[in-house]
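FAQ

Q: What does a record look like?
A: Structure on top, sequence underneath. For example:
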């Protein structure tokens, strides 16, 4: 029995292999180009990448159509070959039937025919197997091409989406760029306008500076001329005073008897003053507008100085009460004033952080002493060395000054705000009263504290040296006065009264020339007088209608002044 061979299932065709390699290479190229196109779209908005992908997709479609045509041709050939195989099998079967009925004579010819038919059948099976293999390969290639087409279509859709997003972003960027250019143009216009305004302002400032410099020069020139005129007037005034004194001396020489009688009367009044307490008002003086902070009597008892809020030191004749002159130049309220030992100089302390030294006779400014950072609360001139003075300020500094040169010799920083200073008897030490209620003794040679004592429970408004030079009188906002031994800082005596209240932080007491009595002003407008010996309150003088801030005592009488700027001279 003849067996028909089975079709071959692993026959490989070179053309099919080449097609597979081409498809794989094309797919790989498509993936690489898709990635490159995506990168290109991230950096540019040009549409040439999309066009290239579209052309390649069209090429793939054409190749896919050609493969479909080849597949249909292979199917047709396979069907034809199948029909041929069927015909050959039928012919072979018919030949076998015929061969069984024929005679042996004819066996050679029939056997030859059967062998030929078998060979044709085998060849037909072989071609059929090859056609089937080519069909399978073509179908696989078609599937690969379809997959490649699907990938290409997906890539194309993605590229289209990316292009659309890129175009939208490009439009947005164009709008943003247009807005930015518009804003830039507006900013440039505004900057140009501001620059023009700035240049105009700078030009105006330069012009103002030039005008100011010119005005300052003119002002300085006027001031110099005024100073020269003032000096001339002062010289003329000094000459007139000398002439007046000469005339007075001549008159006194002519009326020696009358002058002697007046001197004896004055001497008797001085003696009465030294033994008693003032009780009546001799003069009522309008000293300073805004209020008087300090009064001082000259050592010869001829002149009264009143310092106050009107930035002036007003000078009065003690005997007549006449206003003789004003010492000016301060830029703030004058808080303290004192005379030199020979009464030729006057020193003032001001809230403008400076001190000023005047010639008492002419009113000419000798020096303006600067160096304090805050208002100067107290100043005292040396009674031994006329060229030295001491001052204190709320910058917590005590300074010793050279009045000849007009500069500070030394400075001492205090641990608490200082309100008052005074030289001791040797003037090698300075006594100071502080915000914390302490009295401190400073050695001016070393600028260090030599002694310290907590004398009061509140601010010490003033420290005053007693005539015996061994004791120090202090006044405080705790409404007491205390007499301290300078050598030991022991409290010798305390002075107080039921109605006595200290009214200002600058309130200062005073001591009678013989050291037997002390006086201090109160917040109720009274002037309180105590006896030093036993601390007894001797009397209270009433005449002010405001806080009595200051007082001074000499052989000519007792002077007191209040915050209304009224000064009273008591005898």
């Amino acid at each position: 029995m003849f067996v028909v061979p089975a079709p071959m299932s692993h026959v490989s065709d070179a053309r099919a292999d080449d097609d597979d390699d081409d498809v794989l290479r094309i797919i790989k190229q498509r993936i690489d180009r898709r990635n490159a196109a995506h990168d290109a779209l991230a950096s540019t908005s040009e549409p040439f990448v999309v066009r290239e992908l579209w052309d390649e997709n069209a090429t793939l479609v054409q190749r896919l159509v050609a493969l479909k045509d080849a597949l249909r041709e292979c199917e047709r050939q396979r069907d034809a070959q199948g029909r041929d195989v069927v015909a050959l099998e039928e012919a072979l079967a018919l030949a076998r039937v015929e061969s069984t009925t024929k005679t042996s004579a004819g066996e050679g010819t029939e056997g030859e025919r059967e062998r030929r038919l078998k060979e044709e059948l085998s060849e037909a099976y072989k071609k059929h197997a090859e056609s089937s293999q080519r069909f399978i390969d073509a179908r696989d290639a078609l599937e690969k091409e379809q997959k490649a087409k699907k990938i290409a279509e997906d890539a194309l859709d993605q590229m289209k989406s990316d292009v659309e997003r890129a175009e939208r972003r490009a439009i947005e960027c164009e709008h943003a760029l247009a807005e930015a250019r518009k804003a830039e143009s507006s900013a440039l216009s505004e900057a140009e306008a501001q620059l023009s305004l700035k240049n105009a302002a700078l030009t105006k400032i330069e012009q103002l500076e030039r005008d100011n410099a010119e005005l300052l020069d003119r002002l300085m020139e006027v001031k110099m001329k005024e100073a020269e005129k003032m000096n001339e007037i002062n010289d003329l005034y000094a000459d007139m005073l000398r002439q007046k004194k000469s005339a007075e001396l001549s008159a006194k020489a002519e009326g020696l008897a009358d002058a002697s009688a007046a001197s004896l009367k004055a001497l008797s009044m001085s003696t009465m003053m030294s033994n008693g307490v003032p009780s009546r008002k001799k003069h009522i003086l309008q000293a300073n507008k805004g209020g008087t902070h300090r009064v001082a009597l000259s050592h010869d008892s001829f002149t009264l100085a009143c310092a106050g809020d009107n930035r002036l030191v007003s000078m009065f004749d003690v005997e007549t009460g006449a206003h003789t002159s004003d010492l000016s130049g301060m830029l703030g309220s004058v808080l303290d004033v004192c005379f030199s030992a020979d009464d030729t100089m006057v020193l003032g302390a001001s809230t403008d952080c400076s001190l000023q030294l005047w010639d008492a006779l002419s009113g000419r400014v000798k020096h303006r002493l600067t160096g304090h950072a805050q208002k100067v609360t107290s100043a005292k001139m040396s009674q031994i060395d006329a060229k030295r003075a001491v001052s204190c300020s709320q910058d917590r500094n005590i300074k010793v000054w050279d009045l000849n040169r007009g500069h500070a010799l030394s400075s001492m920083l205090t641990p608490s705000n200082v309100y008052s200073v005074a030289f001791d008897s040797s003037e090698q030490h300075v006594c100071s009263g502080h915000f914390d209620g302490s009295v401190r003794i400073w050695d001016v040679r070393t600028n260090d504290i030599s002694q310290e004592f907590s004398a009061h429970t509140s601010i010490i408004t003033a420290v005053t040296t007693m005539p015996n030079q061994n004791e120090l009188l202090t006044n405080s906002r705790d409404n007491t006065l205390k007499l301290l031994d300078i050598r030991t800082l022991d409290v010798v005596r305390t002075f107080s009264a039921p109605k006595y209240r200290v009214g200002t932080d600058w309130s200062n007491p005073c001591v009678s020339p013989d050291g037997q009595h002390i006086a201090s002003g109160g917040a109720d407008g009274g002037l309180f007088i105590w006896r030093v010996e036993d601390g007894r309150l001797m009397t209270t003088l009433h005449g002010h209608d405001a806080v009595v801030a200051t007082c001074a005592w000499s052989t000519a009488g007792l002077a007191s002044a209040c915050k209304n700027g009224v000064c009273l001279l008591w005898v």
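Q: Is there anything notable about this one?
A: The radius of gyration is 63 Å.
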